[in-house]
Each structure stands twice: as structure tokens, then as C-alpha cells.
Amino acid sequence: xxNVSVYNMEGKEVGTMELNDAVFGVDVNEHLVHMAVVQHLxxxxxxxxxxxxxxxxxxxxxxxxxxxxxxHARQGSTRSPQWKxxxxxxxxxxxxxxxxxxxxxxxxxxxxVLTSRVQGGKLIVVDELKFDEIKTKKFKAVMDNLKVSKAxxxxxxxxxxxxxxxxxxxxxxxxxxxxMNVYDILKGDTLVLTxxxxxxxxxxxx
Length: 206
Prior knowledge:
This protein is of the alpha/beta class. The chain is 34% helix and 16% strand.
């Protein structure tokens, strides 16, 4: 089992913690991690892009000039793709880009990325995060104490004071254990977990 240091909000080490190898010590499957990221980005796409084909643009009902004898190339419609104002050849239409990833694959990808954060020394455990008020300045001070700039902060349960305090920091994201995903973990340079969040992750994914 991997041992990691536990820090307080002042950035001082207050102990150590053993991480469960079933979650934080698995074999890293890069292919599944890649698939999880691709799926996350594909599912976020709106898929509302649309352009008109030659059958949808207005006009062009009659042949612009006779077939032969004008000196021009033959044309059947002023709404063919080569004309200004003509239709697009293979026009994009609204579609759904999302695809399915099996539950076991999702879990394996998440465990892989958690393990990679531990192996890379990019995982920080905090004994607790507690704020008396919603204050971005205080949250920024905690991140500075931990020497972290770009991070995903994972908490066990919904805490509005933490979430709203971090919301205005452009390089910091927050997530609850049940909402964290592979893409968000990889997007931040560092993964910051509270002790309660670690316990909940191990309970859910071990």
C-alpha cells in the first residue's frame, strides 16, 4: 500500500495515510484512460452544427442558360456547389456524438488515472477543508499553502462554501466524489483530496 502525507489547510504535514492498492495501486491502462477522455469530450458536444445542401438552399429552379452554344460551361442550376450562394457538398447535419463506455471500463479508467497521480507524486491529501464563509481569497490561500496552482479539488459531499469559494479561480475545479471523472483529473496538474473523499472513493471503487 502507498503511503502519502496528510496536510492541513496551512500546508503543514500532520500525518500519513495508507491508500488502498485496489484503487490507488492498479496497473495503469492508458487505452481505457484515452477512451474515457474521448467519451467525455464527445458527450459534451452539442451536435447542432448545420449547413444547407443544394436541395435546401433557395432559388436555382431553372437552368441558367441553354445547354450548348453560349461558350459557357454547361450548368443545370445556380444553386450547385460551385456557384456563389450554392449548397454545401457534404453539409454537416445535427447528430449525436455520444457513445457508451461500459461501467467496468469507466471504473478501470478512473482507477488508472488515480494510480498515475499517486505514482507521479501529483496527489495531495488534506485532513479537512472547512470555511466559515464563502471567500475566494481564503481558498486561494489554502492552495498557495499547499503549493498548488492548477488542480482538481475533490470533496466527499456537497459543501457550498468550498464550491463557491473556488468557483472564481480559473485554474481550480471542484468536484464531489460521485461527480469526478477522468478528464477533470487529467486537466489539473494536481489532484487534491480530503481525507473523507479518500475514504469514500475507497468505499465506492475498492
